[in-house]
């Protein structure tokens, strides 16, 4: 990590007036393998976005007042408790929650979806497209008493809706479960793909789900940073997202939505904070504990809550709302158009898409370059141009397999394949951006792609610990 220690970092600058929301790290210098330094071009927002300057400032202003939440009698404890509970209200407002919805603070989207999986009523049937991120694909089958129906990759939003409709019709036709109905069902769907950036037809899928008596959870990890999410208007039952993708990297996430399954299930974690009343009883030498659990969000937030994480998310929600999604979306559309136009000018580049060229999307674009191993390409973008993108299968192996039209590289979760530079591409490169991305980053990226394809890498690279790195001899 000598590259990082050698880099000189300064605070954020807001020099690019076209970026509606300044982020931290815009003046960080990173070394180039070819010599010299360049400001880092963070184009991996889909993995983790830089912190908003506003979020950082809010957290810094609160830090001296930090105190224990929910338990302390002191002034700062009370202040922190208010801040934590007000953060919940701010997130509820940002998501357009219904009056009875709960907003549970979790660690991340993955944690939120695992929490929802844990509270599903026994016998629930879950429907999920195989194209989902692993966080939406995998939690359900961990639950005993829950069956999962995997839906095949649709090639258009319309096909997605039809596929779900067919699957839910078949489920209902299976006949009544105990109690006379088909039993509970849940559909889990992403709002925007973390691989293609394409928007999924959430409203239509919700209508279909509800028409069949199923509920729906929206994985908004990639949607919430780019588009408004309105629970009440879209009528989804739950929404999950992560702070670190929403410019608030302080280790918190959110599950928001219907209270009933959350209230009725066993607490996600057993412990302090989740329990209202606890008494140990011993009868004839046999012991047990009687517990009265909270029925509010606290039921699933046992332990000391991440007050700074929650506050950071609330701060980001307010900053995005105040900046206005209309302007953010318009600005992002310009960047998307510029990147796609630049990539189109390189015949060796193939952009990955499930729904086709015209599908509406957020600033997440994956591609492969003919004749290049994607890890090699990404390593050269970093080492020779100071551009941070991502390579791999993006924790969506089945989707990337579909898009690459064959078996991807043999690799672990989120890692890079064991492939030497120059071999056939077994994985993809992803460029992603958002609020705070200056034009220069996008222009540098397009210039770098063109130059690498035309002239090749200036340096040699080797595979080390499964990653492609510059060979420093
Ligand atoms: C669509 C989608 N869902 C879920 C996740 C998981 O988010 P986290 O790693 O913050 O739990 C990601 C992360 O990349 C994602 O892109």
TrEMBL record:
> SUPFAM superfamilies of this UniProt entry?
PLP-dependent transferases
Q: Which UniProt keywords apply?
A: Pyridoxal phosphate
Which residue ranges does the record assign to the Aminotransferase class V domain? 43-445
Question: What Pfam families does the entry give?
Answer: Aminotran_5
Cofactor(s) this protein requires: pyridoxal 5'-phosphate
Q: Is the keyword Secreted assigned to this protein? A: no
PANTHER family attached to this UniProt entry: CYSTEINE DESULFURASE (PTHR43586), CYSTEINE DESULFURASE 1, CHLOROPLASTIC (PTHR43586:SF8)
Q: What is this protein called?
A: Putative pyridoxalphosphate-dependent protein
């Amino acid at each position: 990590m000598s590259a990082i220690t050698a880099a000189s970092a300064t605070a954020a600058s807001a020099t690019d007036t076209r970026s509606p929301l300044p982020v931290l790290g815009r003046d960080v210098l990173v070394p180039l393998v070819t010599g010299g330094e360049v400001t880092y071009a963070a184009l991996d927002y889909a993995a983790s976005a830089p912190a908003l300057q506003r979020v950082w400032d809010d957290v810094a202003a609160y830090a001296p007042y930090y105190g224990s939440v929910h338990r302390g009698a002191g002034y700062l404890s009370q202040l922190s408790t208010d801040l934590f509970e007000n953060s919940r209200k701010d997130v509820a407002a940002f998501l357009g929650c219904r009056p009875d919805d709960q907003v549970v603070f979790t660690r991340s989207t993955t944690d939120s979806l695992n929490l929802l999986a844990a509270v599903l009523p026994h016998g629930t049937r879950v429907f999920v497209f195989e194209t989902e991120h692993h966080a939406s694909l995998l939690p359900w089958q961990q639950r005993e008493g829950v069956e999962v129906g995997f839906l095949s990759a649709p090639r258009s939003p319309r096909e997605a809706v039809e596929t779900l409709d067919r699957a839910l019709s078949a489920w209902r036709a299976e006949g009544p479960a105990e109690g006379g109905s088909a039993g509970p069902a849940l559909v889990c769907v992403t709002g925007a793909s973390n691989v293609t950036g394409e928007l999924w037809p959430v409203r239509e899928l919700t209508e279909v789900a509800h028409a069949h008596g199923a509920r729906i959870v929206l994985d908004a990890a990639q949607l919430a940073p780019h588009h408004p999410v309105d629970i009440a208007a879209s009528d989804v039952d739950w929404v999950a997202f992560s702070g670190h993708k929403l410019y608030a990297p302080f280790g918190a996430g959110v599950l928001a939505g219907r209270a009933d399954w959350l209230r009725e299930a066993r607490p996600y974690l057993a412990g302090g904070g989740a329990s209202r009343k606890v008494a140990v009883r011993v009868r004839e030498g046999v012991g047990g504990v009687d517990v009265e659990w909270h029925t509010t969000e606290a039921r699933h937030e046992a332990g000391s809550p991440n007050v700074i994480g929650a506050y950071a998310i609330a701060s980001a929600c307010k900053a995005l709302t105040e900046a206005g999604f209309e302007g953010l979306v318009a600005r992002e559309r310009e960047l998307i158009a510029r990147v796609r136009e630049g990539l189109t000018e390189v015949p060796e580049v193939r952009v990955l898409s499930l729904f086709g060229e015209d599908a509406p999307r957020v600033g997440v674009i994956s591609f492969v370059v003919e004749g290049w191993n994607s890890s090699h390409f990404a390593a050269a973008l970093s080492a020779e141009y100071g551009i941070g993108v991502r390579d791999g299968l993006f924790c969506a192996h089945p989707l990337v397999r579909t898009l690459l039209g064959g078996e991807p590289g043999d690799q672990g979760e989120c890692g890079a394949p064991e492939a030497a530079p120059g071999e056939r591409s077994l994985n993809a490169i992803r460029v992603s951006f958002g609020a705070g991305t200056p034009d220069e980053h996008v222009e540098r990226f397009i210039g770098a792609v063109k130059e690498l394809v035309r002239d090749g890498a200036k340096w040699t690279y080797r595979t080390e610990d499964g990653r492609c790195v510059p060979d420093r001899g």
